Structures are given as structure tokens and as C-alpha cells.
Amino acid sequence: MNRELTGRHVFLITASAFAVIIGVNITLAVSAVRTFPGLEVQNSYVASQSFDRERAAQEALGWTVEAEAAQGEMRLAITDDRGRPVAPAALSVLVGRTTSAADDVRPDLRFDGAAFVGPVTLGPGLWTLRIEAEAADGTRFHQRLSLHVDRQG
Q: What is the mean pLDDT of residues 37-61?
């Protein structure tokens, strides 16, 4: 039995396809807005006024940061330009997902003479570390690192 394809059928098929596309776009847009963790700075113009000066001071420190997490423990090593361990006057680390602030944690890291070590449980996948430190001379150091975790722990 052959049914005739009329203009009404074509219109309904086309309208249904666009309705699905628009519905998916709205769902994704709402989800993106709800999970956005927030702004980096309140006023980007004001932040830009001191950017070059702060960057030069941070680069003059010569610090390098390496992080790893495995088996329920995080290790964060900060070294100077000669490879010696650095223990900043102040350190704050925020670990979170790049897409949502729901899993953010601030691990309690202790300096063991070579690196900062502490317990943290991270699920597998990509994590972002936001490191804020202050050198003994008051220089502010901040860096964002990506951390890939293979297994739960």
C-alpha cells in the first residue's frame, strides 16, 4: 500500500526535525549556564592594569610546579630554577573539574621537605589545579595545571 507524500507531511517532518534541534540546543544552553563556575575576575580592565608587572615578578621567581594524584594521595612539587624544593610562605590549592564547581576540593597538603603531600580522593578523568602561593618576599604566584587521573583514588 503506497501512501502519498503530501506537502503537509513534508512540513510536519521538517517542523519536527527543527523542534528536536531547538529543544536540544535549549537544554544544552541551560545546562552550560547552570554549571558555569563563575567569573575569573570582577573587572577585567582593572585586572589588566597590573598583569604584566605581576607576570614578570612571578617569572622572576623561576618556580616550576608538578602535580600527581594516585591511590588517594596528591603530591605537589614546587621547585626553583635550580631544581631545589620551594616551600612558599603561603599556599592554597583548589582541585576541581573544568566544567563544574560541584566536585571542587581544597586538599590539606603538608610540606615533607621535597613536596607538598596530602590525602585527596579524585575520580578518574581530567582535573584542574588552581594554585595560589606567596613567596617569602611577598611575590604572588598563581598557576593553573591540568591533572589526569587514571583510576579512582
A: 83
Distances (CA, A) of 145 to 66, 95, 107, 125, 129: 8, 10, 15, 14, 5
Which tens digit of pLDDT belongs to each residue from 7-36?
Answer: 999 999 999 999 999 999 999 999 888 877
Which residue spans within 7-137 are E strands per DSSP?
Answer: 64-70, 73-79, 90-96, 110-111, 116-119, 125-134
Gap between the Cα atoms of 19 and 146, Å rounded: 38
- Between CA 42 and CA 54, with CA 48 as vertex, the angle to 5 degrees is 110
pTM, two decimal places: 0.67
Beta carbons of 120 and 74 less than 8 angstroms apart:
yes
The secondary element (H helix, E strand) that includes residue 140 is strand 140-149
